[in-house]
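Milestone M4 deliverable, item 7.
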Amino acid sequence: MTRKKHAHELLGKLETFIQNLPSALELGKSPQELYNPITYILGLDGKRIRPLLSLLAYGIYKPNPEEILSQAAAVEVFHNFTLMHDDIMDDAPLRRGKKTVHVKWNKNVAILSGDVMLVKAYDLLLPTHAEKLGDVLRLFNKTASEVCEGQQFDMNFEALEAVHEDEYLTMIRLKTAVLLGFALQLGALLAGAEKDDGQKLYDFGVNIGVGFQLKDDLLDVFADQTKFGKQVGGDIISNKKTFLLIKALELAKGKDAEALNYWLSQSEFDKEEKVQAVRKIYEKLGIKAITEAKMNSYFDAGFAQYEAIHFKDEDYFLELKKITQDLIHREK
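Output delivered:
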């Protein structure tokens, strides 16, 4: 089997498993308002990156990763649970180009359906062998709590005038990166990998995850609109405290600081004018290069950890590395 087939075939099996979840998890029962939103959000066009990472990490150490489709799907169900609740908190109208659950139904339905998704994620972890189930649940619970901590920090930042770089990096590590780390560690744990290798895979995932978020921050400001798939400059328009804005506020002096603070203080403005003005300040301050350097430092640290793991299947090892590199070089 070639390396391409590894990921392609696993992704196909994973997608089939996820699409069959409504039946497997008995989501068709009444009341429909509780269960239909779960089927709906799981049916949106997700990339399934997190569960695929679990399967590939398992394949590095043990044959037949499809044996852990249930546990991998638990990661995806949990991830979509967080999206459903995040969309409520962010009052987001769209998710992957479709109406969010709270818009299509209502907020109360979205809250309750999300709660059931979390319960069902535990159901999907239950096929784990008894001797490993305790460790899996402990790591899952730790990760779930940290994701919630990250979301709370993100909401706290909305009310703060200033956020320090370290605070922001901690927030994105918790909100985004730890779930990537857990997905990889889960696959290694279920495959019986050495604890040290599992930890390196976790650290690899966390570092790559922080790098991914910094990449998203960068793309939001400097992406090619024709490739990005959504409005460029959305973070600027909403005054979102991204790494770029935090560094700009730290470095801007004189007229640059005045101009930046002016745009941050305006409640009514021309969106395109604001995006262009703030981007111009970023370019003058070299914010793009600063962000790229920080982003690459996380990617470099992650791959250094990845290269240090002991693997049994080189094909899966190389495939996991390639998929991660492809994500790093994305333009949308």
